[in-house]
């Protein structure tokens, strides 16, 4: 994170339009840097709550009090995806000297709509901060929501240098990791790494609607991991999937082809080449999974993992991690596994492979129950 | 776990056929309870390694030394799925007074094959311990591998009471949680909660084979969670999916139907009812996901979650959990999130909702950076 906020050197305030989770978080983060922030929301209540939590000054409140509303130099449109383009066009017209950016999770359709409206594209830049949380609304906002998360800047062909600089400064000031991409490339990327996983998780989880609960009680971590994001907000995802329909459907054609291939194979599992067909699908999954970068954004890396059975009481897991720290080994990853029917926690720990054997032996010596 | 091992009261030794990860883990667990264990494996090396780690006495070594090989009262077949039925049939013939059980992850086809061979079904019982780890082979074995994990006992119509009792005793002695189910019901259940998630994860991950790495660097926890099990061993899964082809393909027909429905919707996202169609898919995913039981095997439960940004140095996460323990709040779940490109860890913590506000405030007072 830059020490001196780049955006604070701009000459006027930042106007945030839409003060839900993301808009209010941007407001809070900028206020922490002493940047002047104005907030506007279609809902007077949401706007008032955002002001109350310190995300900026309510434009409505200023007007009601007869006070001067300063002219923004940067407008951040943080409204729901399906109204973003319209608000961007209005903001470009209303604030003829301001840079206007949006933070919606699909970029090309918004750029197209803004261009179609004949707006000044030199002052508009689309962006996508890849952050969020399971809750929504300004009460859930956190100024540090963007810390260490990617923030993609997607300039269009007409976007001016000043607009790009303003977007980069905002992202950097809020602690995010910058990436620059063309709008269409961005949309194809998120279709694959975000929207398709959401669809597959929902398709899988929807199969569980009628499964008896005593069957589901046998579920392991695999089912929990693959279905976790199926718990996401349908209203938001309808807008996202509808807006990015074309790249998502391209990926779904490929999924359909693989599903057809697997169905044909499993309908005759003793047939010629059937086992080879299954093996190929599994190996392709291996190959794709291995390409996902690990922690620290580095190349994919294999860590050694082991599992410790711990009593499910406060402080036990802390004590385990304290001892791992005492032994001098850095924790690369950990997960707490669920134990159907028993009050025992299973903590799976990932460490550098060359520290694995020593650590397991030392933990066992100290009385920890290394189970796997 | 029972204090007095039930199986130790049987009159003879346990013969474990197949001394890979699971067979050797069963041997180790029984040896911890002072049960006499004999081990046999198609590979002399694997059998010798299993003896060396203390999983039991090698039958081959006893014979080579001209020593007496005692007659087992229980035979546990822990061989690869595609040879299990044949080994069960042989064991029933070779040991005419022993109970024979297997631990393969698909049950009905094995029972059918054993029945078709005209073997003594009264002494045979299929079982499925739902435990494993990413590594294989006897070196990876752990006597506590089955602690708190489900172990499904699947008697056939002809299975006798003594066989069922022996299987239950084995599972309980090894610390597992017992469930009894008919073979066909078991196979349908694992098709849905284990095999379909594996297939969906592989289908999703295989789409990433040609994705540029700088696109994958934008991946969040959602993609990591949904694709983690796509890293599983293809050789094993070919056998599992081929053996349980019928129930898996039934689920895949339903997935195909939903994929077709979604493709039709996304090909015309502005069409009549398109958004409703997407919303319905998402809501069905919500409904299925919400039915998966939470920790402790209880009813699904919503915990309050928040995220803390921590330095990625040894001991920091331990200190966080220690302080949560000091504040007196029990950790219901936690996950360590990956931070692309930055050496900052994001720890997401789940707690009882009624402790959420106090805990977050207290942690912030203590200087922790609660980011979401």
From TrEMBL, chains A, B:
Keywords: Amino-acid biosynthesis, Aromatic amino acid biosynthesis, NAD, Oxidoreductase, Tyrosine biosynthesis. The keyword Ligase does not apply. It comes from the Bacteria. One of its GO terms (biological process) is tyrosine biosynthetic process. Residues 12-300 form the Prephenate/arogenate dehydrogenase domain. It is an enzyme of class 1 (oxidoreductase). GO terms for molecular function: NAD+ binding; prephenate dehydrogenase (NAD+) activity; prephenate dehydrogenase (NADP+) activity. It catalyses: prephenate + NAD(+) = 3-(4-hydroxyphenyl)pyruvate + CO2 + NADH. Pathway: Amino-acid biosynthesis; L-tyrosine biosynthesis; (4-hydroxyphenyl)pyruvate from prephenate (NAD(+) route): step 1/1. Pfam families: PDH_C, PDH_N. Residues 305-372 form the ACT domain. Its EC number is 1.3.1.12. PROSITE patterns: ACT, PDH_ADH. Belongs to the prephenate/arogenate dehydrogenase family. This is Prephenate dehydrogenase. It comes from Kocuria tytonicola. The lineage of its organism: Bacteria, Bacillati, Actinomycetota, Actinomycetes, Micrococcales.
